[in-house]
Queue: 2 jobs
Job 1
Amino acid sequence: MSEVEDFLKVARAAKDAATVLAPLPRAPKDLALRAVADALVARSAEIVEANAADVEKARAGGVSEAMIDRLRLDTGRIEKIAAAVREVAELPDPVGEVVRGSTLPNGLELRQVRVPLGVIGIIYEGRPNVTVDAAALCLKSGNAVLLRGSSSAYSSNTVLVRIMQDALAATEVPAAAVQLVPGQTRESAKQLMRARGLVDVLIPRGGASLINSVVEESTVPVIETGVGNCHVYVDADADIETALSILINAKAQRPSVCNAAETLLVHADIAGEFLPRALTALKDAGVTVHGDERVRAHGADVVAATEEDFFAEYLSLDIAAAVVDSLDDAVRHIRTYGSGHTDAIVTRSQRAARRFVATVDSAAVAVNASTRFTDGGEFGFGAEIGISTQKLHARGPMGLPELTSTKWIYTGDGHVRG
Amino acid sequence: MSEVEDFLKVARAAKDAATVLAPLPRAPKDLALRAVADALVARSAEIVEANAADVEKARAGGVSEAMIDRLRLDTGRIEKIAAAVREVAELPDPVGEVVRGSTLPNGLELRQVRVPLGVIGIIYEGRPNVTVDAAALCLKSGNAVLLRGSSSAYSSNTVLVRIMQDALAATEVPAAAVQLVPGQTRESAKQLMRARGLVDVLIPRGGASLINSVVEESTVPVIETGVGNCHVYVDADADIETALSILINAKAQRPSVCNAAETLLVHADIAGEFLPRALTALKDAGVTVHGDERVRAHGADVVAATEEDFFAEYLSLDIAAAVVDSLDDAVRHIRTYGSGHTDAIVTRSQRAARRFVATVDSAAVAVNASTRFTDGGEFGFGAEIGISTQKLHARGPMGLPELTSTKWIYTGDGHVRG
């Protein structure tokens, strides 16, 4: 069979499975998830063996040890993956929730009820744990899932999906509800992006270039996730100690994640007092500052920033920095260079906080708090499939309800329209 | 200037206007809408004059009188358009609504708040009243709007937009928040479909071919609306009188709209009793039935149905009809041929109703009620921008809240992540 036929077979099987899975209530879905968790632990030797092949191939290909560590699975890590699946089973089921409802003046009973989306495609990189995490979240929310991971993890992903399917086969959830997109070529990813009518939504999880290419090429609706050029704006009325602790936390506590800060903006009126201390604190935290001219006046170690620096999602111990003349200039800077993820203001002024919150157009706005809190776990969602930076359907951390649509149901007694 | 430059100028102006409009509270938006309504009435002579030019051109082009009637504006119709704008002003403002909120365990105050989408593009056909209706709904929900109507109504639309802009100029809502896409060529519509980054969402309003071409060509996220191949399924346990009245209402009360029924499915066990009466009632209502072999056995006037008939959105006094052997077969038929708009079951069986509601995958499912109730007005929304048949963001009738996104706001006291 050709790669296209292979893909269509898998996608149609997922679609059929979705129609069986969608109306299932919570109990059989939770049982299925626990069966998956048990199977992953019981068959961890198979997983470790398949993973060793991926690791060997990566090492032969000269992949860095840091990347290899992200790829590697051992029994401890597999137990953690299984534990995460059990946690998803514990979460409330979003399906069936009545979102709105009323009795209309004519007596029709109207309800808007959460239903699964149908078939969700996930395109992702690196870590094979995403294979299981994403599948668990999709199943729990009543969706079938088509997984397209990195070719570097293809052996691991193949075994993980086979184990999940085997476990599901003994449950009410159809085994075909979890599928790995066959093939490792660029073409197989394209199939998934063009499967309008078979796939209801595509969620890319990975770096900016992966996400951009999916957005450009996909005819299936996409939920953009995760690119974060987050700003910390230190207002004229900021408390200096608060600003310093938020800045260092947002930048350096975990620089490799999308909710880490990438740009510091400082109001001109406080720059003289704040910047010398901030630059020292950043230096002590190992951070390289890429500053505009007005920032460079306050520190010898500041590298000259180019315009690219202000667009950058470093994901490293680097930060761009600029001095602005007003809160509105800070907002304009964020609108121009930001990615619409999370932007923070540090201020004691109620008026400044209100204005910043009202005019910054991002998924999350933090007032006197680190940008690092934009996270499904921190928000209390229990699990997160990604952080949406688009405005349609879902914006910000996406939990289980964001993996659903709704259906209107109205019930009458022979009602006709006059 | 080239057409591309013309378009970009207009789109950028709309985007700038959106940043001013988004944080405005309800009062200035309502004042602006009332100013628009007043101006439309006061300047109706200008509108009638521009409209006469469109009508003359249409007549010279040999357009049917029915189409010309849809195009025509007179003072009475302009007053109705203005009244609709005043009604939108009376509706609650969705912007600022707190959708969810809590205090997190660490004391952070978390709020998810409705915010405008930004810039909404509307591509539509025929009636010039859509120009004003769509603009009013977008402004009320804090969005700027780029309007791309039919070239047949270009003179009318140009004057309507100019009058709205003139009225807005004296209010807090920027005049540039309402814009007509310049030019009448196919290219000008394409500009709008490719304006990713400038336009946040595109809503096509019109027939299936318009909607499909927008879905295919657009890189801007699209909300599909309005194609309705709605089904009435008469279950084995149906009350015959109820089934007849729902069928005739759904098909014949207003056949030109998307929530009218286009296909009748009848359970085999009730076909012998129901179909002879149904075919007579449909004939009396002037409806032509396109039936499968088992339907044709019950009536001499039934035309043989092709597979296309079961896909068709007739929007006329025609209906496709088939006999099915089970409720599940009816659902499979709806999944295969339907458009995911509205499907109705007529049954006395609670079990059948539950199964139909659970397994039909459409924006709305009606139980013992006509499909004609799927409508923003009937649902109590007060206004409707269209009926979404897609699953992401909005599904079913779209009112003002469906023209918004959300923003997460969290407020702390120097909170950092440990």
Note: The longest strand of chain B covers residues 404-415.
Job 2
Amino acid sequence: MLRIRRLPIDTYPENTAFLLRHANGYSAEQFQALRKIRVTGGSSEILATLALVDDEGIIGHGEIGLGEQAYRRLNLSEGTEVEIAQARPPASLDYVRRKIDGDTLGEAEVGAIIGDIAAHRYSPMEIAAFLVACAGFMSTPETLALTRAMVNVGNRLKWNAPLVVDKHCIGGIPGNRTSMIVVPIVAAHGLICPKTSSRAITSPCGTADVMEVLAEVNLSAEKMAEIVAKEHAVLAWGGRVNLSPADDVLISVERPLRLDTFEQMVASIISKKVAAGSTHLVIDIPVGPTAKVRSQNDAVRLRKLFEYVARHMGLVTKIVFTDGSQPVGRGVGPVLEARDVLAVLRNEPDAPEDLRDHAVALAGHVLDFDPAIEGGKGYSRALELLASGEALAAMERIIEAQGRKPAMPELGGFQHEVKAHRSGRIVAIDCERIAKVARQAGAPMDQGAGLYLMHKIGEQVSKGDTLYRIYAGSQAGLGFGCDCAEENSGYEIG
Amino acid sequence: MLRIRRLPIDTYPENTAFLLRHANGYSAEQFQALRKIRVTGGSSEILATLALVDDEGIIGHGEIGLGEQAYRRLNLSEGTEVEIAQARPPASLDYVRRKIDGDTLGEAEVGAIIGDIAAHRYSPMEIAAFLVACAGFMSTPETLALTRAMVNVGNRLKWNAPLVVDKHCIGGIPGNRTSMIVVPIVAAHGLICPKTSSRAITSPCGTADVMEVLAEVNLSAEKMAEIVAKEHAVLAWGGRVNLSPADDVLISVERPLRLDTFEQMVASIISKKVAAGSTHLVIDIPVGPTAKVRSQNDAVRLRKLFEYVARHMGLVTKIVFTDGSQPVGRGVGPVLEARDVLAVLRNEPDAPEDLRDHAVALAGHVLDFDPAIEGGKGYSRALELLASGEALAAMERIIEAQGRKPAMPELGGFQHEVKAHRSGRIVAIDCERIAKVARQAGAPMDQGAGLYLMHKIGEQVSKGDTLYRIYAGSQAGLGFGCDCAEENSGYEIG
């Protein structure tokens, strides 16, 4: 028996336990070679990775140290006596092994895997094994089972409304910050739109990162309900409300591995929307040579997968294919994108047209869900709400309700202009490369970092013209961004 | 800039760095969300997982704590100033992603992946992604490329002899401890046989675990050379001499995931044999309904893969299919298997016949590599060396040279007899189940734990006869073993 000692060490996302290497009456090293131990006290039990300590100042004889995650999840107080044993791997790992061998899994098996993942019984390597096996092949019913399992293990928000709308883009296009325009338009119209967004996964920023420049986004479910009751809509960070905890764990592995399959995408998006209580959803699929979806065939395959899963989950969807040939708007990065969004909402004359057009079209599709709107009139209604300033007013109320940030963070003080190396017409802009330059410059961690695009596809430039300006908050960030742009600016001049 | 502080925390196999959560002038949490940081000082650099500390007693302002692995691999002294940055993922991860997408990789790409893995630049989840992608599909040239890459990143032993023989079994059959009989026979004949073995991966014990009961196995390359010069052979643990460090890293992930594909098996075995300086190799492939290879088709596929890779690596092989329908010998577990081996070498009348026959046959194949032996006479020569006691004498000299253990560890004091639930003839014994019972009872960590089989296939038993005896060093171990045997004893009585 070992006594629990809480160690102030945060080993996100894993549980870690700490033992003295010697003098506990068993070979700690042999436990460690097995990678995981089971810690049991009463009816509480966790699996944890084992670290060995050679200093009795950190952990004493007869003690087991628990890092923050392990301590919180075991949920027993310091000094409680616990036992440790070689962890038996979660039973559902047998299903993962079958998936690796090429089997197709049933609903109960997928449910068991997701239950164990949500309960933090899988190590990152086991999660990676599951995800990569699924990336090899995953059937449509498996994708549905995954979606359902992810909904079942998380919270669900409830709204007293027959129509709860949402809009989601699959991502991949820098600057494509339409949600922050669509949501206030829809709110101004009076539909319920409790939007939860993610932070950047592999991109320079997510909607939550951009909204955070203007307002608090770390909102509880209660606070969200309060804001929606008053303003019809909210733009919150989804991570706080634990809508799909299994998906959050999966993403913590997908992100560093940059895994992004259609099946995982559909399960992730649909599960979060169902958990958020949405009834009607517009999904934006940008299609372009450097977008996530690169051909019409792929777009149709993805559309059908969304439709199948959403229908079986009771969610009404409208799938929209949009132009994903280049970044949308001018800014890429939290502050720069927030500026673009505000320019559109304020109807400023130099607001990026493509961002405005794109957002209004999507808002129109959302408004078309409203039975009170005459068929096909969603678009003109959206345009009207934007032009009249009603959308801006709604946005200001939402910002106020969430908690307005005292001042927008400054743009990065370290800047560099990337020039055209020849004269000609811009024929292509590589979305992946633009995203990479912005990330290297520091976005989204550095809110003022990113790019501002001076020219878009179809425009004529002369040699030496500035294609875009890189912003960074540090010399190092600017250096990384410039190196990346130097290697390949992402612009093709024909 | 942060000053290195060495923390006495062993986070095998990963590098871990520790930072105060607050007060270092940047957001440590955002670094942590990225999972890995790069620590750079002068020309030294490592990637490390980041743990956040909330106690200045463990790590102070302006300091970065390095766990044992990270400290050793960065190889800079305490107090040295280092920089940290968001880790750029190893470039070779792009190839892993291509492999996940179904591509076939070339030699340079596989080489880059293995180089990064051997340099500990991959996290376990990244290694898992590579292994699972390879488990999905791997071409024969990819397997060869993997083998060559694994040899290139490790040490290579050199022997001044035209003929350096070895023998390897692919495993999966409990009790099949033939190496400890084959090696002394071959040594007695005078061939050079510097055998390196592994510890148990998924089995109740490996040859290194069993040999360790009798002699020291943790030998340096120099010590091995010294012993081989005198005794022609050695039975050492391969982990010490760093023959295939990339394979050791891969195995640290394969083991908990219980991944065991033919391709990884061939690359692992052939790379280690080439690195150990072998020129001629006998490979034992047991075939049986609960063995690793379960059909003649699979056996032939595996044989061809071994032959292709070995030939291109310049290694002469003889592949032998053997009876893998049940455990070999009577004992399963380090001490119990060592007893069986000694009984055979000592020509004791009750020595397990199947173990002796199996070992002599394999030794005969090894001796057939000797040009001085008349065609087909290897078997009779092996039998002669065993029967005459020359093999036993060679084993005693090898044990003496490696460092004889003062006394064999005792058999586990907690015992339980598993009885036949009906009368009849034994028609099958499940190798996987027998291995599992032995592991649950504590083998190999508990050297005296394991099973002793009283009956084998074809024998007649009466209801209540003892099928096997479980040994464990603790009541808990015995309990786990008995539970496992209770669920399924592994014996089928017809």
Note: Residues 165-402 of chain A form a domain with the Pyrimidine Nucleoside Phosphorylase; Chain A, domain 2 fold (CATH 3.40.1030.10).
